[in-house]
Amino acid sequence: MQTGGGILRQPMSVWATAFAAVVAFMGIGLVDPILPSIAQGLKATPSQVSLLFTSYFLVTAVAMLITGWVSSRIGGKRTLLAGLALVIVFAALAGTSGSVAELVGFRAGWGLGNALFVATALAVIVGAASGGAEAAIILYEAALGLGISAGPLVGALLGDWNWRAPFFGTAALMAAGLVLIVTLLKSTPRPAQKTRLSAPIRALAHGGLSTTAFTALFYNFAFFTVLAFTPFILGMSAYGIGAVFFGWGVCVALASVFGAPPLQRRIGSVNVLHLSLALLAVLQIGIALSGHTGIIVFTILSGIPIGLNNTVFTESAMEVSDAPRPVASAGYNFVRWMGGALAPFIATKLGEEVGVAVPYVLGALCCLIGMAVLYTRRHHLRALSRVDADHTAHDAAPAV
User: Cα separation of 249 and 227, whole Å?
Assistant: First the structure.
């Protein structure tokens, strides 16, 4: 029997948190269209500018380890607000940067706020949403897809005026999100038991969670190779780059919300991961071997496997182990975001010094390694088969 609301029938507190999540995820793709402009304005090389991603995701990854410890002591709402406040401050400071080193440092502070917000936002949405954890995760991934797709457009529109403007714009939008959460989200109760600092690392001792996390690390390396290096080889204006990554982001959003759930029911979560990793590898080889038009087409299409992966990896991390969801999320995100931290600098450096095709070949190889990890450790993922069966049974039950 189906109870509760659909994905769109959610409390206002969920929509307020989702709006702030959209803006938070905009920060990932925001700098994409203006990367060449930043390099020119601050007289920096592409690999130096790529450190904007590296500092952001490295701090985000490490900070994930403390999110549960913080939220279990001050509550989910206060943790969200603390993360939002940090993003507002450091996004605004990024707009005042006088050197690439300053900008990289301010993006690191931005990453700390992002970690506090993003990890807690997922737990808050799961706890408050109607329709159960699956609907909440789809809503969260929809926010991710919308934010990633809107980010390049906002970055292009504001960046065409001045490369500093997108940072100030993000600070303003995050301030609006903060006001919404203050007014619409009720204070969340603190957990009965405080989370230990070591809990996320201990959670990774579970074979299923560690398999999911390390596969996601290789996937994220491939993901952020596309996101961080491609703007430098497109040879387009900020508007052109923004349009390409808007199309890419739309594919991410549509695949996350409308592609992943039915595929999970039809072929199972693990098989969806194999399929999407293989498709991402093929598309990266396509980018490596193509001319300008092919690069545009394959970059946009890469949003499809990325959207599938984002949803299935997130849900798998939440369901594969018996750890509390916030703890499992923290451990999983600590590992996966390391891929986002490593890829931008390594890929851009290889592109500068070896050849522009090399980063994508490495990204495709990382996808194949991820598939190998999934296959050799498949016995740790049996719990996902039960989750897929539960979802299928839930859909088959008559609605009331």
Answer: 10
Per DSSP, the residues of 182-214 read HHHSPPPPPPSSPPPTTHHHHHTTSHHHHHHHH
Question: pLDDT tens across 89-115, in order?
Answer: 999 999 999 888 999 999 999 999 988
CA distance 38 to 51: 12
What's the token pair of residue 82?
A: 């603390």
pLDDT digits (tens, 9 = 90+) for 138-174: 787 778 778 877 888 888 888 888 888 889 988 998 8
CB 30 within 8 A of CB 166: yes
SS3 250: helix
Q: Whats the size of the chain, residue-wise?
A: 400
What average pLDDT does the structure give for the chain?
Answer: 87
pTM for the full predicted model: 0.85
Q: Give the dihedral sign, CA 159/165/166/167.
A: positive
Whether the CB-CB separation of 260 and 311 falls below 8 Å is answered with yes
Residue 19 and residue 125: Cα distance in Å, rounded? 11
Q: Report the alpha-carbon angle 44-169-96, nearest 5.
A: 45
